[in-house]
Amino acid sequence: MNAIALRPATPADSEFCFQLHKAAMGDYVAAIWGWDEQAQRDYHARGFDPDHWQIITADEADIGMLNVEYHDTEVYLARIEIHPDHQGRGIGTRLITTLVEEAAQRGQDLILDVLAVNHRAQALYQRLGLREVARHGDDDIKIRMRYTRPSG
């Protein structure tokens, strides 16, 4: 398995993150809203946050991004994107498992939202123990999932 690491994002990572989003999520975005290049660039420009994002690397090459928010009562996986060339290799599993463990150490649950059309991601999250707890957004396009710590 590749050596997986996280590094802080920098402003110079903006274009990488946009191209990553297009590669990893473009088909899902297109299925729901249609892909409008300028609208997506504007959305990215508003949301890109190098102070809170991390770049996922494999053997020192940039392959994805991660955004985790730590709240008083839960850990929220706001975004994880891995380039399609690197999907299916256990990288997402390793990162999310680490987040589940980290949340448990904090005495919290891990939560995330996934697009309803992204069945592959839903299957991964379910395999890792997350369960659907709600649907939201226009026409319920997003599914809220939660990993609840076992009591005891």
What does this 3D model show about the protein?
This protein is of the alpha+beta class and 152 residues long. Helix content is 36%, strand content 32%. The chain has a single domain, classed as 3-Layer(aba) Sandwich (Aminopeptidase), CATH 3.40.630. Strands 1-2-3-4-5-7-6 form a 7-stranded mixed sheet, sandwiched between helices. Strand 6 and strand 7 form a beta hairpin. The protein is globular and about 45 Å long.
Characterize this entry briefly.
With 152 residues, the chain is an alpha+beta fold. Helices cover 36% and strands 32% of the residues. The mean pLDDT is 95.
Q: What secondary-structure arrangement, pairings included, does this model have?
A:
Blueprint: E1 4-8, H1 14-32, H2 37-47, E2 53-58, E3 61-70, E4 74-82, H3 91-105, E5 109-115, H4 119-127, E6 131-136, E7 142-147
Parallel strand pairs: 4-5
Antiparallel strand pairs: 1-2, 2-3, 3-4, 5-7, 6-7
